[in-house]
Design goal:
single chain; about 150 residues; alpha/beta; D-tyrosyl-trna(Tyr) Deacylase, Chain: A; 6-stranded mixed sheet; two-stranded antiparallel ribbon; 2 helices
């Protein structure tokens, strides 16, 4: 599993012109799943994400988690995180990305585990053509992988 985590002031995702997920302060997370990912990886990354300390404290040090600041999560599935663009040519291969029948249930499980951490979670629509608007704060972008 790969997560691209962006600290945001706000973010939203649209499908067919309708907003399907929207948050204010928190993280926008692009979530990629590969063939050998299991609930174990999802459990580890959900805990890591929800306790990631990249929000500033009173001393302007990145020392607070999303829980500490009452932030929200917008989690969007993105199979392109497993693109292989280095093998040959200029067209990436996505063979390392899990097939939808495996990826979607694990994505939904990951969302549930984040909600169980006590954080409000919004999401995109798995497999849809999505338009994502992100106001990155910092900018702060972290890659988490397991």
């Amino acid at each position: 599993m790969k997560l691209v985590v962006q600290r945001v002031l706000n973010s939203q995702v649209e499908v067919e012109g309708k907003i399907v997920g929207k948050i204010e302060k928190g993280f926008t997370v692009l979530c990629g799943i590969t063939h050998d990912d299991t609930e174990k990886e999802a459990d580890i990354l959900a805990r890591k994400l929800c306790n990631l300390r990249v929000f500033e404290d009173e001393n302007e040090k990145m020392n607070l988690s999303i829980k500490d600041v009452g932030g929200e999560l917008l989690i969007i599935s993105q199979f392109t995180l497993y693109a292989d663009s280095m093998s040959s040519g200029n067209r990436p291969s996505f063979i390392a990305a899990a097939r939808p029948e495996k990826a979607e249930p694990l994505y939904e499980y990951f969302l549930k585990k984040c909600e169980e951490e006590g954080i409000h979670v919004e999401k995109g629509i798995f497999g849809a053509d999505m338009k994502v608007s992100i106001l990155n704060d910092g900018p702060v972008t972290i890659l988490l992988e397991k």
